[in-house]
Design goal:
Layout (H helix, E strand, L loop, with lengths): L5 H12 L14 H18 L12 H13 L13 E3 L8 E12 L5 E10 L4 E3 L1 H12 L2 E2 L1 H16 L4 E9 H4 L10 E6 L2 H4 L1 H14 L1
Parallel strand pairs: 2-5
Antiparallel strand pairs: 1-4, 2-3, 3-6, 6-7
Helix pairs in contact: 1-5, 2-3, 4-5
This protein binds guanosine-5'-triphosphate (GTP) and zinc ion.
Length: about 220
């Protein structure tokens, strides 16, 4: 079994304690190659039930492409072994104002329909003892996006992961996204956008901090 990094273990524990890891059913005991082979076999059956000709040279490898994509790409965030390497440095410069990364690109997968969620995140925090490498914020967003998701949980998972790593409650996350299960099927609404926000510490309790965060979002999203 792969050893998790200290940060991956801390984040997983915090999420479990807060009921924010409801989809995982425990450690996956099957080897990755066995899981991929099984997914491909099952997907072959789905394609056959759709009356698709698996002998067609364009379709023949699709079940394997799907299996590879699920395990190594769009659902890679289900495995904490893929949690990003985190670099935090001590806050020797005594930064005490809001740090914001906005317009973080994310694509995720709606857990109800397995269709794309296409959005952007804004993440702010007020440094306490640590400052995090900026790209690590994008990577944490990406990690949790690479799962079957609902947008509300994704927003909360990113918040709690950063609070845990940074040792402060003063974190805020907002995501706006287009859901292809709303756009490309069902109601077929091509313009609606869903916004979700999760606020911690001063972002929740102080009107000034909250307003500063929302003014960044309003002016830039
Ligand atoms: N709250 C929330 N709902 C979501 C998210 N992604 C998809 N959904 C919704 O999940 C719901 C599933 O509803 P169901 O009635 O079971 O599925 P459905 O019959 O395909 O629903 P329609 O999309 O209305 O056709 C839909 O309303 C989706 O829009 C999300 O991130 N958050
Ligand atoms: Zn959906």
């Amino acid at each position: 079994m792969v050893m998790l990094t200290k940060e991956a273990s801390m984040v997983r524990k915090a999420l479990q304690e807060h009921g924010l890891e409801p989809l995982l059913r425990g450690n996956n005991i099957l080897d990755i190659e066995v899981r991929k082979r099984n997914i491909a076999e099952h997907f072959k059956k789905i394609m056959m039930l759709l009356n698709l000709d698996l002998m067609d040279d364009s379709l023949a490898k699709t079940p394997y492409r799907i299996a590879n994509m699920y395990i190594h790409e769009i659902f890679s965030g289900l495995d904490y072994a893929n949690f990003p390497k985190i670099t935090v440095i001590s806050n020797k410069m005594k930064a005490d104002e809001m740090v914001t990364v906005r317009e973080i690109n994310l694509t995720s997968t709606c857990e109800h329909h397995f269709l794309i969620i296409d959005g952007k995140a804004t993440v702010s925090y007020i440094p306490n003892n640590f400052v995090i490498g900026l790209s690590k914020i994008n990577r944490i967003v990406w990690f949790f996006a690479q799962r079957p998701q609902v947008q509300e949980r994704l927003t909360q998972q990113i918040l709690l992961a950063l609070q845990t790593i940074l040792g402060t409650n003063n974190v805020a996350v907002s995501i706006y996204a287009v859901h292809y299960c709303v756009k490309a099927r069902g109601i077929c609404d091509t313009t609606s956008i869903a916004t979700t926000t999760s606020l911690g510490g001063l972002f929740k309790s102080s009107n000034n901090t909250r307003n500063e965060f929302f003014s960044i979002i309003k002016n830039n999203n």
